[in-house]
Amino acid sequence: MRYIRSGSFKRLFSMKRHSLEDLPKECIFMKQDSFNNGETESFKKPTWKCFSFEEIYVATNGFCAENMVGKGGYAEVYKGVLEDGQTIAVKRLTQISCDERKEKEFLTEIGTLGHVNHPNVSSLLGCCIDSGLYLIFQFSSKGSVSSLLHDENLPVMDWNMRYKIALGTAKGLHYLHKVCPRRIIHRDIKASNVLVTKDFEPQISDFGLAKWLPSQWTHHSIAPIEGTFGHLAPEYFMHGVVDEKTDVFAFGVFLLEILSGKKSVDGSHQSLHGWAKPILNEGEVDKIVDSRLEGNYDFLQLSKLAFAASLCIRASSTWRPTMSEVLEVMFEEEIDKNKWKMPDEEKEEQDDFWGFEDLEFESCDSRESTFSTSLQDTVSNKST
Ligand SMILES: Nc1ncnc2c1ncn2[C@@H]1O[C@H](COP(=O)(O)OP(=O)(O)O)[C@@H](O)[C@H]1O
Ligand SMILES: [Mg+2]
User: Does domain 145-381 have CATH number 3.40.50.10140?
Assistant: First the structure.
């Protein structure tokens, strides 16, 4: 193992321990929102452990191809079963992409996930640093929301499941932004990064691009710009500005994907938000809904989710809701739409917002591609 790798791991472990020790002893906090019935959540020390290479090698049957359940630009994910019978997912940094930046993303993912604890956020069981870099997670038996929505070999996802996934993902994202000990911006919210458990509970995963934001900062400017076409908020794409509202925009696109069953970018590079915006502005929500549902949906629930999506994909981040407000819109009996009215001049600006089809980029297949670009416009692609 190269020095930098073990060095960065040591730093990470000690950083994590410090940050936990820095937390007040009574680090049992009330969730700050009214959506959890005032329940308390104890922020327990993460219980994850270091696995030996042998343990995960045996569990995954030697990383055999039949056990591979996912493949991203820099990692492969394998299903495995531990000696005690627990089913796990092992995310392995692929040999070819063992560059320092990817290694950093991997460490970021451990560093971030080691601090989170919520039913709608993926839970890390541990890692392995022998013979490569590996993250070990609980296995989500239903796969990702993307495969559940778009895999033609699976039955069409029914309305109740879509609704449950939308609410659960909103709660998970609200937790990351507002409740957990650090402000976490995920930066790559999309259907393939939301996994579904056997109880159909959604879990936000893939924290490779996540950022911690110091609480006193309003936002953070980032280069290179990384994320997924079709999910990028304009202020992030154009100026590299990142804050919670960047995730809110991507969450809006995620909602549209659940409601419509369409991908965030179609074959002709038309963005889903560009397609949906005029329809939502006209209030024609039933035109958004997936025709494969054949009308089997709850109109009131659909209206709330569609209204939340329309607010989340607003071009101006100032006029986009926070995740607390998104939950209000989703959960409240009646939506006060007037509260969200924008002045006319703002509306005009919104209309000037670029469409995805205006972008020029070098890509073989833009759909679902995570990419990275500096502001000078160099683009490289990653497939998941
Ligand atoms: N815990 C898990 N349980 C089941 N499948 C998983 C799990 N983690 C990842 N996957 C599968 O692997 C894919 C890629 O994982 P992800 O963490 O998003 O990697 P990448 O960073 O390469 O995109 C996911 O879209 C999903 O299909
Ligand atoms: Mg991913």
Answer: no
Burial label for 104, CB within 10 Å (0-12, 13-18, 19+), is: middle
The residues spanned by each domain of the chain are: 6-138, 145-381
**Ligand 1 center to residue 72 CA distance, Å?**
8
Active-site entry in 33, 188, 247, 377: 188
Tokens of 198: 């056997």
Q: Tens-digit pLDDT profile for the chain (384 aa)? A: 333 344 444 444 433 333 333 333 322 233 334 344 333 344 455 578 899 999 999 999 999 999 999 987 778 999 999 999 999 999 998 865 567 777 887 788 888 888 899 999 998 999 998 888 999 999 999 999 999 999 999 999 999 999 999 999 999 999 999 999 889 999 999 999 999 999 999 999 999 888 888 777 777 787 777 778 888 888 888 888 889 999 999 999 999 999 999 999 887 778 999 999 999 999 899 999 999 999 999 999 999 999 999 999 999 999 999 999 999 999 988 888 888 988 776 665 555 444 443 343 333 344 455 655 543 322 233 334
Separation CA 193–CA 182 (nearest Å)? 21
* Residue 195, beta-bridge partner list: 144, 203
Specify the residue for token string 């710009």: 225
- Are 98 and 106 within 8 A, CB to CB? no
Please give the Cα distance from 167 to 160 (Å, whole number). Answer: 11
Structure tokens at 188: 């790559």
What is the torsional sign of CA 307, 313, 317, 323? positive
Q: Which ligand is nearest to the CA of 136?
A: 1
Ligand 1 pocket at CB < 6 A: 69-70, 72-75, 77, 89, 91, 137, 139-140, 143-144, 192-193, 195, 205-206, 208, 384
Residue range 6-138, CATH number: 3.30.200.20
Whether 290 is catalytic is no
- Of the listed ligands, the closest to the CA of 190 is 2
Q: What DSSP state is assigned to residue 317? A: G
pTM, two decimals, is: 0.82
